[in-house]
């Protein structure tokens, strides 16, 4: 993607696999993509998790808008020149034996960005999607973008439920005719990662990076989408 002006918002969704390995490769992938917004799944956790995420953000030229606490399995990084308001990490209901999950959200230059990392079980995905729709996807405080690892192929029930939210969300990759697989990273076969966008945000382009570092940095490939911001 070529250079862009302030009226274009570049959103990247990426499962960082806890920054457990190949951190230099992850940094290279993000720096090459130059996102304005990085929707993170599987950020580092534990006693040093927040500090490690801050260091990663600094290396990529970004800042942590949401990380740790209720965000749990998600985080949100934003470049310094974009405005951020109402940043929050929200815990999702948990059941014994499952991963404790959360959602990251903030208004970035007037766009409500919601980062999700849905579970492996269909019933849990359905419960969490309904809560996200009910509490975060009203569309009454600006256009909406939902980005994350849905752990489900396009056309699945979670995709459909999210696309029906906020007056209708589009699968940016399909709109841009870039519906490429993202998982597994080394030999991708399916796309389980999504950027779903409000129809008030025209999709200018989308791609799944394929440089060498992408195949070793994580078990997912990222999805990068350019959106046109409405006039203020």
UniProtKB/TrEMBL annotation:
Keyword check for Hydrolase: yes
InterPro entries assigned to the protein according to its UniProt record, in alphabetical order: Endo/exonu/phosph_ase_sf, Endo/exonuclease/phosphatase
GO MF annotation: an example: endonuclease activity
Protein name: Endonuclease/exonuclease/phosphatase
Pfam families: Exo_endo_phos
Lineage start: Bacteria, Bacillati, Actinomycetota, Actinomycetes, Micrococcales
Keyword Ion transport attributed: no
Keywords associated with the record: Endonuclease, Exonuclease, Hydrolase, Nuclease
Record domain Endonuclease/exonuclease/phosphatase: where: 12-220
């Amino acid at each position: 993607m070529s250079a862009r002006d302030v009226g274009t918002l570049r959103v990247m969704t990426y499962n960082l696999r806890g920054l457990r390995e190949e951190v230099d490769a992850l940094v290279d992938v993000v720096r090459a993509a130059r996102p304005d917004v990085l929707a993170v799944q599987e950020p580092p956790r534990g006693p040093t998790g927040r500090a490690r995420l801050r260091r990663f953000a600094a290396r990529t030229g970004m800042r942590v808008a949401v990380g740790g606490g209720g965000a749990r399995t998600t985080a949100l990084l934003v470049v310094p020149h974009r405005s951020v308001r109402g940043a929050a990490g929200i815990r999702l209901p948990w059941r014994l034996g499952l991963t404790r999950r959360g959602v990251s959200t903030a208004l970035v230059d007037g766009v409500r960005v919601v980062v999700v990392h849905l579970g492996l079980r269909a019933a849990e995905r359905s419960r969490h999607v309904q809560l996200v729709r009910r509490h975060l996807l009203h569309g009454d405080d600006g256009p909406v973008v939902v980005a994350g690892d849905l752990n489900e192929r396009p056309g699945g029930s979670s995709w459909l439920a999210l696309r029906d939210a906020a007056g209708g969300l589009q699968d940016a990759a399909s709109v841009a005719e870039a519906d490429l697989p993202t998982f597994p990273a080394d030999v991708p076969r399916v796309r389980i990662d999504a950027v779903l966008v409000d129809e008030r945000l025209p999709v200018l382009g989308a791609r799944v990076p394929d440089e060498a570092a992408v195949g070793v940095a994580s078990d997912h490939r990222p999805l990068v989408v350019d959106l046109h911001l409405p006039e203020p």
